[in-house]
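Whiteboard transcription, Tuesday session. T.W. wrote the C-alpha coordinates on the left side:
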Protein backbone atom coordinates (compact mmCIF):
# COMPACT_ATOMS: atom_id res chain seq x y z
CA UNK A 1 0.00 0.00 0.00
CA UNK A 2 1.56 3.31 -1.06
CA UNK A 3 1.07 6.39 1.05
CA UNK A 4 -1.59 7.74 -1.28
CA UNK A 5 -3.34 4.39 -0.98
CA UNK A 6 -3.17 4.68 2.79
CA UNK A 7 -4.73 8.14 2.46
CA UNK A 8 -7.44 6.57 0.34
CA UNK A 9 -8.02 3.85 2.92
CA UNK A 10 -8.25 6.46 5.67
CA UNK A 11 -10.92 8.32 3.72
CA UNK A 12 -12.90 5.10 3.45
CA UNK A 13 -12.64 4.45 7.15
CA UNK A 14 -12.62 7.82 8.92
CA UNK A 15 -11.64 7.74 12.56
CA UNK A 16 -15.19 7.96 14.02
CA UNK A 17 -16.29 5.04 11.84
CA UNK A 18 -13.18 3.07 12.73
CA UNK A 19 -13.71 3.73 16.43
CA UNK A 20 -17.29 2.59 16.09
CA UNK A 21 -16.12 -0.64 14.44
CA UNK A 22 -13.67 -1.16 17.30
CA UNK A 23 -16.40 -0.78 19.91
CA UNK A 24 -15.29 2.59 21.25
CA UNK A 25 -17.52 4.78 19.12
CA UNK A 26 -18.89 6.70 22.08
CA UNK A 27 -15.43 8.22 22.56
CA UNK A 28 -15.41 9.77 19.07
CA UNK A 29 -16.27 13.28 20.21
CA UNK A 30 -14.58 16.66 20.64
CA UNK A 31 -14.61 16.02 24.35
CA UNK A 32 -14.84 12.49 25.69
CA UNK A 33 -13.36 10.13 28.23
CA UNK A 34 -10.12 8.64 26.96
CA UNK A 35 -10.50 5.00 25.82
CA UNK A 36 -6.86 4.30 26.73
CA UNK A 37 -6.72 5.22 30.40
CA UNK A 38 -8.95 5.54 33.45
CA UNK A 39 -10.23 8.98 32.62
CA UNK A 40 -12.42 11.13 34.84
CA UNK A 41 -11.95 14.45 33.07
CA UNK A 42 -12.75 14.06 29.38
CA UNK A 43 -9.12 14.16 28.31
CA UNK A 44 -9.83 12.71 24.91
CA UNK A 45 -10.65 14.61 21.77
CA UNK A 46 -11.48 13.61 18.21
CA UNK A 47 -11.65 16.26 15.55
CA UNK A 48 -11.35 16.84 11.84
CA UNK A 49 -8.96 19.24 10.16
CA UNK A 50 -10.22 20.67 6.89
CA UNK A 51 -8.56 18.73 4.06
CA UNK A 52 -6.30 16.88 6.50
CA UNK A 53 -8.54 14.20 7.89
CA UNK A 54 -9.29 13.09 11.40
CA UNK A 55 -7.14 13.20 14.50
CA UNK A 56 -7.36 12.06 18.10
CA UNK A 57 -5.47 13.17 21.14
CA UNK A 58 -5.42 12.33 24.83
CA UNK A 59 -4.44 15.42 26.79
CA UNK A 60 -3.25 13.23 29.66
CA UNK A 61 -0.51 11.86 27.48
CA UNK A 62 -1.78 8.51 26.17
CA UNK A 63 -0.91 9.68 22.71
CA UNK A 64 -2.22 11.30 19.60
CA UNK A 65 -2.50 10.44 15.98
CA UNK A 66 -4.67 9.37 13.13
CA UNK A 67 -6.61 6.28 12.13
CA UNK A 68 -3.44 4.26 11.58
CA UNK A 69 -2.16 4.72 15.12
CA UNK A 70 -5.53 3.94 16.57
CA UNK A 71 -5.87 0.79 14.49
CA UNK A 72 -2.37 -0.33 15.45
CA UNK A 73 -3.20 -0.60 19.12
CA UNK A 74 -6.23 -2.79 18.43
CA UNK A 75 -4.28 -5.09 16.13
CA UNK A 76 -1.40 -5.37 18.60
CA UNK A 77 -3.88 -6.33 21.26
CA UNK A 78 -5.28 -9.13 19.12
CA UNK A 79 -1.77 -10.41 18.41
CA UNK A 80 -0.98 -10.35 22.12
CA UNK A 81 -4.04 -12.44 22.78
CA UNK A 82 -3.01 -14.92 20.12
CA UNK A 83 0.69 -15.26 20.92
CA UNK A 84 1.40 -16.68 24.32
CA UNK A 85 4.72 -15.02 25.09
CA UNK A 86 5.91 -12.47 27.63
CA UNK A 87 7.86 -10.51 26.66
CA UNK A 88 6.83 -10.71 23.04
CA UNK A 89 9.80 -10.17 20.69
CA UNK A 90 9.58 -7.00 18.55
CA UNK A 91 10.38 -9.03 15.45
CA UNK A 92 7.48 -11.44 16.10
CA UNK A 93 5.06 -8.58 16.66
CA UNK A 94 6.15 -6.78 13.47
CA UNK A 95 5.94 -10.03 11.51
CA UNK A 96 2.45 -10.84 12.78
CA UNK A 97 1.31 -7.36 11.75
CA UNK A 98 2.96 -7.74 8.35
CA UNK A 99 0.89 -10.88 7.76
CA UNK A 100 -2.42 -9.02 8.16
CA UNK A 101 -3.35 -8.58 4.52
CA UNK A 102 -6.45 -6.46 5.09
CA UNK A 103 -4.38 -3.88 6.96
CA UNK A 104 -1.82 -1.28 5.92
CA UNK A 105 0.98 -3.04 7.87
CA UNK A 106 2.27 -5.35 5.04
CA UNK A 107 3.13 -2.31 2.92
CA UNK A 108 3.48 0.42 5.49
CA UNK A 109 7.12 1.39 5.05
CA UNK A 110 7.36 2.58 1.45
CA UNK A 111 5.67 -0.52 0.13
CA UNK A 112 7.57 -2.80 2.51
CA UNK A 113 6.25 -4.48 5.65
CA UNK A 114 6.22 -2.61 8.92
CA UNK A 115 9.64 -2.75 10.60
CA UNK A 116 10.40 -3.10 14.29
CA UNK A 117 11.76 0.47 14.20
CA UNK A 118 8.58 1.84 12.66
CA UNK A 119 6.51 -0.17 15.12
CA UNK A 120 8.47 1.28 18.04
CA UNK A 121 7.97 4.79 16.67
CA UNK A 122 4.23 4.28 16.40
CA UNK A 123 3.86 2.69 19.84
CA UNK A 124 5.87 5.54 21.37
CA UNK A 125 2.76 7.65 20.86
CA UNK A 126 1.11 5.41 23.45
CA UNK A 127 4.14 5.64 25.74
CA UNK A 128 4.91 1.98 25.05
CA UNK A 129 8.60 1.21 24.62
CA UNK A 130 10.53 -1.97 23.77
CA UNK A 131 13.36 -3.13 26.00
CA UNK A 132 16.29 -5.48 25.75
CA UNK A 133 15.20 -8.92 26.94
CA UNK A 134 17.19 -11.99 27.78
CA UNK A 135 16.44 -15.59 26.87
CA UNK A 136 19.19 -17.83 28.18
CA UNK A 137 22.35 -16.59 26.54
CA UNK A 138 20.71 -14.51 23.84
CA UNK A 139 19.18 -11.05 24.03
CA UNK A 140 16.45 -9.58 21.88
CA UNK A 141 14.23 -6.50 21.69
CA UNK A 142 10.79 -7.11 23.05
CA UNK A 143 7.69 -5.71 24.71
CA UNK A 144 6.48 -6.67 28.17
CA UNK A 145 2.81 -7.50 28.18
CA UNK A 146 2.22 -5.26 31.17
CA UNK A 147 3.61 -2.22 29.32
CA UNK A 148 0.43 -2.38 27.23
CA UNK A 149 -1.94 -2.77 30.16
CA UNK A 150 -2.93 0.88 30.49
CA UNK A 151 -3.44 1.30 26.79
CA UNK A 152 -5.39 -1.95 26.48
CA UNK A 153 -7.45 -1.48 29.60
CA UNK A 154 -10.33 0.42 28.14
CA UNK A 155 -9.79 -0.47 24.55
CA UNK A 156 -11.96 -3.44 23.68
CA UNK A 157 -12.23 -4.26 19.99
CA UNK A 158 -14.86 -6.87 19.27
CA UNK A 159 -14.02 -10.16 17.64
CA UNK A 160 -11.05 -12.34 18.48
CA UNK A 161 -10.09 -12.14 22.10
ZN1 LIG B 1 -5.67 8.88 27.88
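and on the right, the sequence the group agreed on:
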Amino acid sequence: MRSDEIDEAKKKLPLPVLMHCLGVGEHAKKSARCPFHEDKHNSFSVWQRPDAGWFWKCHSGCGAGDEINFLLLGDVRNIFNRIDADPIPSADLAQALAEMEDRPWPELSRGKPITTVKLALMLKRFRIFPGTKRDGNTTFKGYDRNSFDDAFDRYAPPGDS
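Someone added at the bottom: Residues 3-65 form one domain.
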